[in-house]
Amino acid sequence: MIPINRVRGDATRPKGSGVKYIIHCCNDVGSWGAGFVLSLSKRWKEPEKQYRDWAHNREGTGKPFELGQIQLVIVEKDIIVANMIGQRDTHYCDGIPPVRYVAIRECLQKVVNNIEKNMKLSPKSKFSVHCPKFGAGLAGGNWGMIETIITETILDKNIPVTVYDF
């Protein structure tokens, strides 16, 4: 199994060749305005626009806006942003942080399923995953637990992962 590649830098500027998926954790209340999403919005408008449309037009999208769901947004020909609903609300409730590890696992599995589908369609292409330490900042999660989920879902499929420390 390949290890996580750790680098200093900006996850909105993923390094390497091939198709790059930028994954990050979103909340299930439609709030976009703090943490990594600010960097995303500064670089591309579409991830925020599509997330807000999804949140405010839940039935019209054909995909539930709820924990464990993802939304893939193509921002460049070789960069896809995965808005992952892995956070319940935006604040602690009775001492429990917003992060939801089960939902993050479900989201990551859906990202992997999409990558594997694209690998079959384009077997000569390279695919990789790029991210900040999502779910461990404002969402209050434990990065070690999230890293374990990344290992069990993405790295076990030999899909390279780069984690960016800004």
Description:
The protein has a six-stranded mixed beta sheet, with helices on both faces. The longest helix has 21 residues, at 101-121. The chain is built from four helices and six strands; from the N terminus they run ββααββαβαβ. By secondary structure, it is of the alpha/beta class.
Could you name the key traits of this structure?
166 residues; alpha/beta; Leucine Aminopeptidase, subunit E, domain 1; 4 helices
SSE layout:
Blueprint: E1 5-8, E2 19-27, H1 36-43, H2 46-56, E3 70-76, E4 79-87, H3 101-121, E5 127-131, H4 143-153, E6 161-165
Parallel strand pairs: 1-6, 2-4, 2-5, 5-6
Antiparallel strand pairs: 3-4
Question: In what range is the share of β-strand residues?
Answer: 15-25%
Low-confidence stretches: none
State the major sheet: 6 strands, mixed
> How many domains?
1
**Straight-line distance between termini:** 26 Å
Structural class: alpha/beta
Total number of helical segments?
Answer: 4
- Approximately how much helix is present in the residues? 25-40%
CATH architectural category: 3-Layer(aba) Sandwich
CATH class: Alpha Beta
Question: What integer value in Å does the Rg equal?
Answer: 15 Å
The CATH superfamily label reads: Leucine Aminopeptidase, subunit E, domain 1
CATH topology, by name, is: Leucine Aminopeptidase, subunit E, domain 1
The count of DSSP E runs of length 2 or more, i.e. the number of strands, is 6
